[in-house]
Predict the 3D structure of the following.
Amino acid sequence: MVFRKFLSELESKKQLVKITKEVSTKYEMANILAAIDGRPVLFENVKGHSMKVAGNLNSSRDLVASALGAKKSNLILLLAKAMNNPRPPKMVGNAPCREVVETEVDLRKLPIMTYLKHDGGPYIPSAIVIVKDPELGRNICFHRLMLIGRDRLAARIVEGRGTDNALKKAGGELEVAIVIGNPASVLLAAATSLAPGVDEFSLANALEKTDLVKCKTVNLEVPADAEIILEGKITKEMADEGPFMDLTETIDGVRKQHVIKINCVTRRKDAIYQTLLPGLNEHKILMGMPREPSIFNEVSNVCKCRNLLLTTGGTGWLHAVVQIEKKNADDGKKAIEATFKGHGSLKHCIVVDEDIDIYNPDSIEWAIATRFQADKDAVIMPGAPGSSLDPSAEHKSGEKTKTCKVGLDATIPFGKNAEGFKKAGYGNVDLKKYLDEVL
């Protein structure tokens, strides 16, 4: 649902934490968000700024499910269906995101946060970035955006990906639109790797209605119900970007990156700035969840996949738990192979049965403790291509990162008495019958 409508719904359900005391964008707000990670927060009194700031809005799967009007257990199927059935969005003539138009740009008016003492400066981690590839058309993704001047940002643009490829085709400069204040559907779509030429906004619109409107000064389209739009150009100028916290909660280095020059800001009259806490739950969920449908599809090709999860403890990127309905002796091993095929950056995979709660780490650990034997049930893949985000992997300049991947088949051994591997549960009891005060 629309960003501010979701805020209102959270408030009505008493799930929104409101901070009325004056807080600073430098460290203080980030520390508060970290202290209550998993709970949405609205800062109503930001030092030096008139704009309110909202964070932690997608910091649990329950929150994402609520925003999309779905059950947590159905999120993968919902994403997979939308990916397989994209719907082109509708264009509208006017929109809330253009209620105010500012051509005298001063990005310092926005409550752009500094999160950690390691940070190279204030930056925006929560915005989606829109460009047009000269050959493939519109591309939507995330880029870290470091504030380096009144109208200038340094953008972390990963080499060989969509924006970088589009820039090269365009000769090193591109029009750009940066959107702050987006619903979960748009954020998930921007984080999804789709086939070249497939529009991410069509995925967002398949998840829920996402109307677009033309920008004022660049030939790009943005979500009509967004809070803040920054319009400008990615230039050939380069500047230092970083250091900042990465997905793994480790500090990324400093790089020379492209400078974005902003020439126009449009926004709602009472715009709310959306922030995202780097390295913690929301970052991990938004980055990892869009990869889960591809794993689900690959596993489903070899056995019956019931559900799966890229765990937050595994940084939302490196660890997967896959739940299958085991019908054949080798289904667990096949699922491991398919899981690594579905997500190339994955490092560790655990396959479990239907009776294991994949959202409960204790349940997963219990399956490993009672159903897994390393000499029979482990799949070890040394020297495999790995993730550049893993600090323990082998990194060599100009070469693909290498790691050792491990899969654990923690399903009930085939042919054994299944009942002997299942928990014996206690019965339910009404404590009111026995206690004056229920514990």
